[in-house]
Amino acid sequence: HGDAEADRGGVGQRKAPADASPTFGPSSRLDIEAELGFVVGGSTVQGDRVNVTEAADDHLFGVVLLNDWSARDIQAWEYVPLGPFLGKSFATSISAWVTPLDALSGARVPLPGQADPRPLPYLQGDAFGLDVHVEVSLNGTVVSRPEHAAMYWSPAQMLAHLTVNGASLRDGDLFASGTISGPTRESRGSLLELTWNATEP
Q1: Whether residue 110 has a cis bond before it, omega within 30° of 0
Q2: Alpha-carbon Rg of the chain, whole angstroms?
Q3: Which phi and psi (to 5°) does residue 173 adopt?
Q4: CB-based contacts of 11: which residues, under 8 Å, 6+ apart?
């Protein structure tokens, strides 16, 4: 589609270790991140904090599949001075349907590993994980099966943390779980991890 099409997303500065100076252009290391997205239901007023139990009971509406696209070459260069800025800002894909959290009540599981390290008191309460099986496929071939049940943080804890400094919630707000990756190669949730930063096929 030409340069105009290529410049629509995943564009920024990048600098390989052997390069004398940074260059600008489209990413050559586009990556995916398998995540769950959580849709907020139940708005709050700016300045109000939501605790973990309130988040779980009153402010988590539903779940979507989410792909947090990442331009790894751009992200690697800008990470030191800026953090992941243009390497992350160009695209996020979600599934076509929102599954209400109530429909996943049978998938609630205890969180692994929260005894060590134990979260601070403001992140304690009705914190639960979700036994949701995710599949990552490329060109029709399943390359990974991440398990959300292995995640350390619960969506309720994440939502409580988002509001601890006074940020308000609005109906329809969306936040993401972070990459779902397990301890085995078959459960890694991004191409960066699946290929161990391009050192494995």
Answers
A1: no
A2: 19
A3: -55, 150
A4: 24, 25, 26, 27, 71, 74, 86, 90
Task: Report d(CA 171, CA 169) in Å as an integer.
Answer: 7
Neighbours of 76 (CB within 10 A): 17
pLDDT tens-place string over residues 117-144: 999 999 999 899 999 999 999 899 999 9
The encoded tokens of residue 69 equal 């696209």
Contact predicate 62/101, CB 8 Å: yes
Long-range contacts of the stretch 135-141 (C-beta < 8 A, 24+): 136/32, 136/34, 136/189
Q: Identity (one letter) of the amino acid at 121?
A: P
Phi-psi region of 125 (alpha: psi -120 to 50; beta: other; left: phi over 0): left
Average of per-residue pLDDT across 18-38: 94
In DSSP notation, 3-64 reads: HHHHTTSSEEEE--TT-SS-EEEE-SSEE-BEEEEEEE-S---TT----HHHIIIIIEEEEE
Residues in contact with 116: Cβ distance below 8 Å, sequence separation at least 6, in sequence order: none
CB-based contact 171:180 (threshold 8 Å): no
Global confidence as pTM: 0.89
